[in-house]
């Protein structure tokens, strides 16, 4: 369908607002509950080990159900699936707020993950459907703002709700947002053509096995000391088996669960690699900063949120600007600039010290927000610019899945490095705490006399320094990953300006 014959979609602004409310509601839930876990422990009769299943159940359920979004959208309709997802997500959120025990909470969180899985990929699909190609960049800027700013404000909002009310309001907050989103989508969201296709149960089962085992391995690894536990080896075997059999299956099946032809599109394939890297950098840094601000600088939850808020502001400013630039500037240039800014911010973060004020934390966050925004919008635009429209629902669900897997791997990676490097750094720094080191006498003369309190204070100082060095090591690793991803921008290609834009199926 050409640009001249493409029908105008009515109420595009209201549709966008309704879709984004649902998207932000779902994205917030990936991080908003984290800070409420300590408060849940006593009320639900859980231990410090078992309470993590509140997070794990949601992550695993969402990860398994995300790839099936495309098939469900074709089978029941994108609009209908989106409405059902919103209703189910809100009801299961209310059930989580009313949970009376750990098993009930885990069950309701599983349902929340099942219903929430389709919201993000379908929201991206709808925004691409209702906007002409020349406005795709602005649409992806709005969508990206919700996707990337949501996890930033989630811990702050969750901390404020938990401190001001109680942890149940972390889930109850979804009710008013969900009702407004549902009413808007019901009134204005256009219907889409359905496409009946056979469900590849074996392919879905193998992919689910691989994804589920991988998420369990990443979540449980730190608790059981990774590969020293037989449990992790089982998860690794199931992960490799599931993914390997799935790949072999879709390459030979007549009607596979995911069409291999999608990956022949160079922009989409490169976009998957990029979004994997973005997932690592975005949520890994968000997982590191709040505990760092609390453990080293003693910031309360609210102050931590205020210090990290400028990061979200930088992201939103960047996305609003790049949404217009993406039509005029080569996407490869924007992506490279964004990665360069992100690497520069991580380089600034390697200069953190326990004695500094919060100015460097704020400015490095702003620069990183600007950089990630410059990457996310052109990447989300170009990745889907040349892919066949019939694969769009599958492609957006895969895009979200890869981003979430990158986030899970990034968080696990930096967490493991932080724990192990802290132990190593503490052991190395402790070798300098001897009576023969003149600096020890200058810092704490009482320690040379064997004072238990002074020795404990010295040990605390060593802990802080060891922890700070470990955080810097993590920031340096993420900087290296960012720099290594920059050459991939050369694989992206600019869409042909004369190519037909995507048809809009609306009635």
General description of the model:
This protein has two domains: 12-199 and 257-422 and 466-491, Growth Hormone, Chain: A, CATH 1.20.1250; 200-256. It is mostly helical. α4 (69-76) runs antiparallel to α17. It has helices at residues 12-28, 37-44, 53-65, 69-76, 78-97, 102-116, 119-130, 136-164, 169-172, 174-188, 201-220, 230-252, 266-295, 301-325, 331-349, 359-383, 392-430, 438-443, 445-448, 452-485.
Q: What is the CATH class of the largest domain? A: Mainly Alpha
Q: Based on the structure given, which CATH architecture of the largest domain is correct?
A: Up-down Bundle
Q: What is the 3D form?
A: globular
Strand content: under 5%
Total number of beta strands: 0
Distance between the termini: 16 Å
Instruction: Write down the secondary-structure element order.
Output: HHHHHHHHHHHHHHHHHHHH
Helix content: over 70%
Mean pLDDT: 81
Work out the count of structural domains: 2
What is the secondary structure topology, with strand pairs?
Layout lengths: L11 H17 L8 H8 L8 H13 L3 H8 L1 H20 L4 H15 L2 H12 L5 H29 L4 H4 L1 H15 L12 H20 L9 H23 L13 H30 L5 H25 L5 H19 L9 H25 L8 H39 L7 H6 L1 H4 L3 H34 L22
Keywords: Cell membrane, Membrane, Transmembrane, Transmembrane helix, Transport
Subcellular location: Cell membrane
GO molecular function, one term: transmembrane transporter activity
